[in-house]
Design brief:
single chain; 358 residues; Rossmann fold; 2 domains; six-stranded parallel sheet; 13 strands; globular
Length: 358
């Protein structure tokens, strides 16, 4: 790396700091990038990532913004930090952060690298987001899709398609899972919001309840957390445990057999990558992002969103065929560890920052 990297000062912006791929990618970049490169962070005061960022960059290199809301006061604070700290590159992570980042680029003249971290594929809300992305294209030095299937959606954005890069998320490999139990231990990790469709998981749990083969553990918080708790109690799903947001999921990965995802869309799920890296067999929806990782019948199994009967049938098959579960989990672990290393992700972003500065 040439000495120009010493002049790179990156401001990372995330509209969330509770969980998710965006905050984790920021942590990976800041903690493992070239030591001569400087980093600053704008994010909400949420656990666990706000404290992690503060420990990495220090309080003076941070600015607080509201969670998933835009405020002009926060925009001005971001721009003040950019000017006072000599920021050379803005890196926005996710749609909300992208509003702050591209507007700051327009008003300060610093280039903005924007990572989508999941593009809503359709509907009125998806169309609004696509229109916003197209309008912000003039202030986007580079746009990053985290998977090839996300890039397919991003190429519909016209001007941005010419500045599009694909940088897959990387994963720090957790310890491999422990021996299986008498129950099929099903793990789900993700924010409890519409994108992840967590209530669908409960419908799947109902369908296998009488089989007495599965125990479900659900990690994550979010706007649907109360609805999940009410449904678990109302449906008397005693084998579904809602764990809330955890500081680390490593113990959960070690003590599970199957990773279940009911997402309606993804960029490239870090939780899925971590689970596969630990040797869990994935049963996930057939959506963009998941399709980039899971090969049907080889490294996991896919079901259409809403096809809860097939998801339940796959769980029954996994419970009754431990040899299949072992084979798929082993293949998943090898595939992810070969293709999705954090070091590769960070090197790609470092090169992109240097290009944006140039």
């Amino acid at each position: 790396m040439d000495r120009s990297i010493e002049r790179v000062r990156v401001l990372h912006i995330s509209a969330r700091a509770d969980s998710g791929g965006g905050p984790e990618v920021i942590r990976q970049i800041v903690s493992t990038a070239h030591p001569a490169m400087s980093h600053l962070v704008a994010c909400p005061r949420e656990k666990p990532y706000h404290d992690r960022f503060r420990n990495l960059v220090g309080e003076p290199s941070m600015v607080s913004i509201p969670s998933r809301r835009f405020r002009w006061q926060s925009q001005l604070a971001i721009e003040d930090l950019i000017r006072s700290a000599g920021v050379t590159v803005i890196h926005s992570h996710g749609f909300g952060a992208g509003l702050y980042g591209r507007l700051a680029s327009a008003r300060t003249g610093r280039p903005c690298v924007h990572t989508f971290h999941g593009m809503m594929p359709g509907g009125a809300a998806g169309l609004v987001r696509q229109l916003c992305e197209a309008a912000l294209a003039p202030w986007t030095a580079a746009a990053v899709a985290v998977s090839e299937s996300e890039a397919v959606l991003a190429r519909r954005l016209g001007p941005l398609s010419r500045r599009l890069r694909v940088i897959p998320n990387g994963v720090e490999f957790p310890a491999e899972r422990e021996e299986s139990s008498a129950w099929l231990r099903v793990l789900s990790v993700g924010r409890l919001e519409r994108q992840k469709d967590p209530l669908a998981l409960l419908d799947i749990a109902v369908k296998v309840r009488d089989d007495r083969i599965c125990r479900f553990r659900v990690v994550g918080g979010g706007p649907l957390a109360q609805a999940m708790r009410r449904s678990v109690n109302g449906l008397k799903l005693g084998r579904v445990e809602l764990l809330g947001t955890l500081g680390s999921c490593q113990d959960e990965y070690r003590n599970a057999d199957v990773f279940l995802s009911t997402s309606l869309w993804e960029g490239l799920s870090l939780a899925l990558l971590e689970a596969m890296s630990a040797g869990l067999a994935p049963v996930v929806t057939r959506v963009a992002g998941n399709l980039d990782v899971v090969e049907e019948g080889v490294t996991g199994f896919l079901f259409e969103p809403g096809d809860h009967d097939r998801a339940a049938a796959l769980l029954r098959m996994m419970a009754n065929s431990p040899d299949v579960r072992q084979r798929v989990g082993d293949a998943a672990r090898r595939s992810v560890r070969r293709r999705f290393a954090v070091a590769d992700t960070v090197r790609s972003y470092q090169a992109l920052y240097l290009e944006a500065c140039a």
